[in-house]
Prior knowledge:
49% of the residues lie in helices and 12% in strands. Strand 5 (89-92), helix 6 (98-109) and strand 6 (114-117) form a beta-alpha-beta unit. The chain folds into 2 domains: 2-163, Rossmann fold; 168-292, N-(1-d-carboxylethyl)-l-norvaline Dehydrogenase, domain 2. By secondary structure, it is α/β, with parallel strands linked by helices. Helix 1 (12-21) runs parallel beside helix 7 (123-129). The protein is built from 14 helices and 9 strands. Bound molecules: nicotinamide-adenine-dinucleotide. The site of nicotinamide-adenine-dinucleotide (NAD) has 27 residues, from helix 4, strand 7 and helix 7.
Amino acid sequence: MRIGFIGLGMMGHHMVAHLQEAGHELVVHDVRRAAGEEALSRGARWAETPADAARQSQLVMTSLPGPRDVEQVALGENGIIVGAGPGTFYVDLSTSSPTLIRRIHQVFGARGVRVADAPVSGGVVGAEEASLQIMVGCDADVFEQITPALRPIGDKIAYIGLVGAGEVAKLVHNQIALVVQQAVAEALTLGTKAGIQPEKLLEAIRGGAYGRSGGGVGPNLEKTALQGDWDQPRFALALARKDLGLANDLAGELSVPMPLAALAEQTLVECLNRGWGGKDMVAAWALQEDRAQVQVRVKLPATT
Ligand code: NAD
């Protein structure tokens, strides 16, 4: 299939590589020309604008930071809408607004362009290993037709429902992750400041009724937060705030009270004000450690 791909960032550049390995012909575009170099060296073509990428493609994918970028790339001047012909597909892989993708679906639909939202989960490692969970929202017949373009980038492809449903599922997923992260950070700063070794706390929690489920205290905790490993972003804190903001916006639209998610968003806003938007989302731990005036660190077992 001829695929246009826009947004070759931390996630997108791996996805493009896998699509090329699977034999698809790629036309790529990014505001940073350098982001496309690797793909071009493997035979992709460069497009000067999203419209140009769409003109050359049967299916266009975007992996962009958030709704503002998606709106501009899809509907803006020289956007996908200008170049996409009837019978083509547009698949947004970004974590973005369900309300926006439904609006795009309306506008594109009037031109015969079929739309799907297909946000992903699994992090940069999942993108690199092509083991992403993909949460798809679109008409059922569209799902059938776009699946060959999704299979190379994720091994768990779930049809969630009509357009926008994928984004809702993704926002709910990230809401849980971000609220639980702050609950665990609070609890472990309390336990550590009360004089208990973090290793002992983890042993107690993981053996206990709640910890046995792994929720929030899975094995990555020692490798990231409890090493203070947040300077290099795997998933940028600014993007995490965007996701929680979108979940809270949706809750506002639907009159769902979400006091915990609102508080968690405020914490992320405070992190952004400290200039941490480009750090990993785990940097929210640093704020809790600063508030509590204690650091929670563990030694990793020596590897042989
Ligand atoms: P990123 O910032 O690394 O990549 C975004 C890319 O889009 C960049 O290369 C940027 O130059 C490009 N871009 C921005 N605006 C553009 C525009 N107007 N036109 C063309 N290109 C533009 O972000 P990422 O971490 O790769 O995340 C991409 C999406 O995937 C986000 O919606 C994010 O929430 C989601 N996501 C990220 C992760 C993760 O772990 N990083 C995991 C799951 C989902």
